[in-house]
Design brief:
The complex is a heterodimer of chains A (122) and B (168).
Chain A: H1 2-6, H2 16-25, H3 30-35, E1 39-40, E2 52-55, E3 70-75, E4 78-88, E5 97-102, H4 107-121
Parallel strand pairs in A: 1-3
Antiparallel strand pairs in A: 2-5, 3-4, 4-5
Chain B: E1 11-12, E2 24-30, H1 34-51, E3 52-57, E4 60-63, E5 66-71, H2 79-82, E6 90-95, H3 96-101, E7 105-108, E8 115-119, H4 133-147, E9 151-152
Parallel strand pairs in B: 1-3
Antiparallel strand pairs in B: 2-5, 2-6, 3-4, 5-8, 6-9, 7-8
Classes of the chains: A alpha+beta (122), B alpha+beta (168).
Amino acid sequence: MTGRKANPWHVERVDASIVERLTVRHRPHPEAATMGVDIVGDPHRENDEGLNWTLLSYSRNVADVVPGSAVVMGSPIGQYLAKVVAWDFEVSDEDPIVVLDLLPVTPKSVEDALARSRTSAA
Amino acid sequence: MTVPPAAKGRKQRLVRRDAPDDLLLVIRATPASRALAVEKIAEDAELSARIYLVELRQGERQLLYGVSVFAHRAGHELTEVLDRFPFAPMFIEAPVGVIRSAGCDVIATGENPDHFDVQLIPGVGERDAPPSRRELRAAAAQLLDAAGELRPNPSYAGGADDQSEVNE
C-alpha cells in the first residue's frame, strides 16, 4: 500500500470474479443491518500503516465495500465516513481484511455540502 | 467461545521499542455504559488475535489480544487524541505502568509513534488454547478497574444518533 501514500486516490482493485465469489457466500452482518451502515468496525483500530481495518464479514453488502468505495462505518461510538483502500487476503481468502481510510468529516457535514451543491445547481 | 485459527496464518505486527511506564495512554473513547465498553474491548481483542501475532523476543510469537490505544503526551491537549471520537461521550486513560499492573502488556505497534496495543492477555501462543470470551471480559474489566472511572470526553459533540452538531 505504499502507492496510497504517494497518491491518496490509489486503491488496490479486486478482480470482479473474487467479488462475485465472496458475494455468493456472504450474509449481511446483523449489526450492520441494524445500524443501517455499510460495515461495522472500531474507529480506534490502526494497522501498521495507520489505516483502520475490519473484516468483510462485518459488512452488509460485499459489492458496497469494494476497494475504492466510499462507505459509512458504524460503531458503538458513532458513524464514520471512510474510503475502502484495499482488501487484504493475507490471513484469509474467504474473509479478507477490509482496509479503511477514515475521513475526518462527519456524514452529516457531507450530506449538508451535497444538499447545498444540489440547491445551487437548480 | 474460542478464536478460530486463521486460515492462512496470522499477520506479524510491527513492534517498535518499549513503552515507558510513565507514558499516559488514552485507552478508549467509550459509550456511556461501562458494561458495553468492557464487551467491546473483549470483542476487539478477540478479533485482533484472529488476525495478528507479535514477536517480542526472537522466536517467541504470541497472539495479539490487542486493543489500539493512543499516547497522550505531556504538553499536548487531550483533544488532540480525542478529536477523532466526537460521538463518544466518555473516555478512559491511564499510564502504561498502571495498565501493566492490571496484568496487561503495552506494546508499541505500527508506524504511528503514538499508537500502542494493550495486550489484554499476554503469552498465548499459536498452539495454546485460546482464552474464552468470559476470560477476555474479565481482563477488560480488570483493565478498566485499574484505569479508574470513565470521564467525559472533552471532544464530545453530540449523540451518535444526532451527529448534526459536529462541524456546524
